[in-house]
């Protein structure tokens, strides 16, 4: 299960959960590794009050990492975000009460 907590300015406001295919999650972990996600600093950019901003946290069995940034960052990170957004929007989300 994936959880999502939407704050102001996001497509969904509040807490949600969704089911996913294990293969899709494995593909995302592989894409994150290929994009160099785990080697990136925790924070990218100077003006972190700018929106939109990404706060990506990946926790799998062996790797844990977080990257927060607004507009700056390598193109590989932006491609990873696009893939993540496409995948997330394809899931069926259920509100958590």
Give structural notes.
The protein has 97 residues and is α+β, with helices and mostly antiparallel strands. It has one domain (20-91). Helices cover 30% and strands 27% of the residues. The protein is built from 2 helices and 6 strands, in the order E-E-H-E-E-E-H-E. It has helices spanning 22-34, 75-90, and strands spanning 2-6, 14-18, 43-44, 54-59, 64-69, 94-95. It has a 3-stranded antiparallel beta sheet, with no helix packed on it. A hairpin with a 7-residue loop joins strand 1 and strand 2 (14-18). The radius of gyration is 14 Å and the shape is globular. The model has no long low-confidence stretch (mean pLDDT 83).
Task: State the gist of this model.
It contains two helices and six strands.
Trace the largest sheet across and list its strands.
1-2-6
Number of strands: 6
Radius of gyration: 14 Å
Written as H for each helix and E for each strand, in order along the chain, the element string is EEHEEEHE
- The low-pLDDT segments are none
> In the residues, how many domains can be counted?
1
The averaged pLDDT comes out at: 83
Give the termini distance in whole angstroms. 16 Å
* Share in helix: 25-40%
Assembly status: single chain
In DSSP terms, counting alpha (H) and pi (I) runs of 4 or more, how many helices?
A: 2
Shape: globular
Strand content: 25-35%
Question: Sheet with the most strands?
Answer: 3 strands, antiparallel
**Helix and strand composition category:** alpha+beta
Descriptors for this entry?
97 residues, alpha+beta, 3-stranded antiparallel sheet, 3-stranded mixed sheet, 6 strands, 30% helix, 27% strand, globular
């Amino acid at each position: 299960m994936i959880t999502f907590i939407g704050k102001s300015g996001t497509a969904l406001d509040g807490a949600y959960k969704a089911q996913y295919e294990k293969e899709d999650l494995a593909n995302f972990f592989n894409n994150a590794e290929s994009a160099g996600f785990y080697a990136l600093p925790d924070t990218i950019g100077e003006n972190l009050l700018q929106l939109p901003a990404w706060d990506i946290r990946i926790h799998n069995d062996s790797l844990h990492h977080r990257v927060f940034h607004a507009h700056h960052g390598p193109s590989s990170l932006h491609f990873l975000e696009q893939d993540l957004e496409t995948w997330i929007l394809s899931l069926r989300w259920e509100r958590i009460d």
